């Protein structure tokens, strides 16, 4: 088993480009509407599978049509979904995203079953059998903020499993809760805004340093199409993003995580793995949705020259 993605599973419905939303009943014609597996666990799982990794995804979804569609999408992409638990009392998490011409978008979001995920959903020995465990959105899957789950992570790390983490929400209160996970992970990847919200530091390098002091060996702060700050206990580096025409920023963080994890799985060091992450993110930014334009690892690496 190579990678376990654990956390937020969301079904995204995207439309674009959307230049304006009229107040009345008039229709808006767009070029494209897509449905994708998204969220910091499901979106990362699909990207990892497309990059050639064996992936098991663990999370909570509803026993509904949205959940059926999410399972079908992930299965078609080669993700092992036997770790998904179905809830009858709540819906599958879902978002509606009208994507603007510059790639930005608001979101209409129903958190659904993600809020019900607990450590009980994790099969015995699953984490310790993985090369990498990716915590996708522990700030929104608050049931994992549990000493029993931290004990499971500690046992997995002692057996050699690498743990990565990617928070999902921009909300300071939820990101504050995610700080509890920092002593239990090896590599943290997050956006500039999330880093500032978690630390109170607007400078991404200072924010990365503050997060490093709380336990992880690596902190990567992404800055959209500009660059990434890659901070370890040895040094801090700026990594420029490949220049591409941005269509949609949805899923770029999850794609970065998938590329980074793939680099680690191929024996690359942290900085080179971050370059793979940046190239994967740039690939996805060129189309609509969290899996756009992502076909295989070779095509991603060609962006790096």
Describe, in plain words, how this protein is organized in 3D:
- GO terms for molecular function: kinase activity.
- This is PfkB family carbohydrate kinase.
- Residues 21-294 form the Carbohydrate kinase PfkB domain.
- Keywords: Kinase, Transferase.
- With 305 residues, the chain is of the alpha/beta class.
- The protein has one domain (3-17, 31-304): Ribokinase (UDP-N-acetylmuramoyl-L-alanine:D-glutamate ligase), CATH 3.40.1190.20.
- It has nine helices and 13 strands.
- The chain has helices at 42-50, 65-76, 147-158, 172-178, 192-199, 204-212, 252-265, 270-284, 297-301; strands at 3-7, 10-16, 32-38, 55-62, 80-87, 93-98, 108-110, 132-136, 162-166, 187-191, 218-222, 227-232, 236-240.
- Helix 7 (252-265) packs antiparallel against helix 8 (270-284).
- It starts with a strand and ends with a helix.
Primary descriptors:
305 residues; alpha/beta; 4-stranded mixed sheet; 25% strand
The CATH homologous superfamily name equals Ribokinase
| Structural class estimated from helices and strands | alpha/beta
Overall morphology: globular
CATH hierarchy, class: Alpha Beta
Strand content: 15-25%
N/C terminus separation? 31 Å
- Order the strands across the largest sheet as they lie in space: 5-4-1-8-9-10-11-12-13
CATH fold-level assignment: UDP-N-acetylmuramoyl-L-alanine:D-glutamate ligase
What is the second-level CATH architecture? 3-Layer(aba) Sandwich
Percent of residues in helices = 25-40%
Question: What pattern of helices and strands is seen along the backbone?
Answer: EEEHEHEEEEHEHEHHEEEHHH
Number of strands: 13
The parts where pLDDT drops under 50 for at least 5 residues are none
Count of the domains: 1
Largest sheet: 9 strands, mixed
How confident is the prediction overall: mean pLDDT? 96
The rounded Rg comes to: 18 Å
Number of helices: 9
Organism: Actinomadura meridiana
Protein name: PfkB family carbohydrate kinase
Domain Carbohydrate kinase PfkB: 21-294
Keywords: Kinase, Transferase
């Amino acid at each position: 088993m190579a990678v376990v993605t654990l956390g937020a599973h969301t079904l995204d419905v995207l439309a674009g480009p959307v230049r304006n939303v009229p107040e009345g009943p008039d229709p808006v014609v767009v070029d494209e509407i897509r449905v994708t597996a998204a969220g910091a666990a499901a979106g990362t799982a699909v990207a990892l599978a497309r990059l050639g990794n064996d992936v098991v995804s663990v999370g909570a979804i509803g026993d509904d049509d949205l959940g059926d569609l999410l399972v079908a999408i992930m299965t078609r992409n080669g993700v092992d979904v036997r770790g998904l638990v179905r809830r009858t009392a709540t819906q599958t998490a879902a978002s509606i995203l009208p994507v603007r011409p510059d790639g930005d978008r608001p979101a209409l979001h129903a958190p659904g079953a993600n809020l019900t995920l607990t450590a009980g959903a994790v099969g015995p020995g699953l984490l310790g059998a993985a090369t990498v465990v990716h915590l996708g959105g522990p700030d929104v899957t608050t049931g994992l903020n549990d000493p029993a789950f931290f004990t499971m992570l500690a046992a997995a790390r002692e057996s050699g499993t690498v743990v990565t983490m990617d928070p999902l929400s921009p909300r300071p209160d939820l990101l504050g809760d995610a700080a509890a996970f920092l002593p239990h992970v090896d590599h943290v990847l997050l956006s500039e805004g999330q880093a500032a919200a978690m630390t109170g530091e607007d400078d991404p390098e200072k924010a990365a340093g503050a997060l490093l002091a709380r336990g992880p060996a690596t902190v990567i702060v992404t800055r959209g199409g500009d660059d990434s700050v890659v901070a370890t206990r040895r040094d801090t580096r700026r990594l420029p993003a490949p220049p591409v025409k941005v269509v949609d920023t949805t899923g770029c963080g999850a794609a970065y995580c998938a590329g980074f994890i793939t680099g680690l799985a191929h024996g690359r060091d942290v900085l080179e793995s971050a370059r793979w992450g940046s190239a994967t993110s740039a690939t996805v930014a060129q189309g609509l949705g969290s899996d756009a334009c992502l076909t295989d690892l070779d095509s991603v690496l060609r962006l790096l020259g």
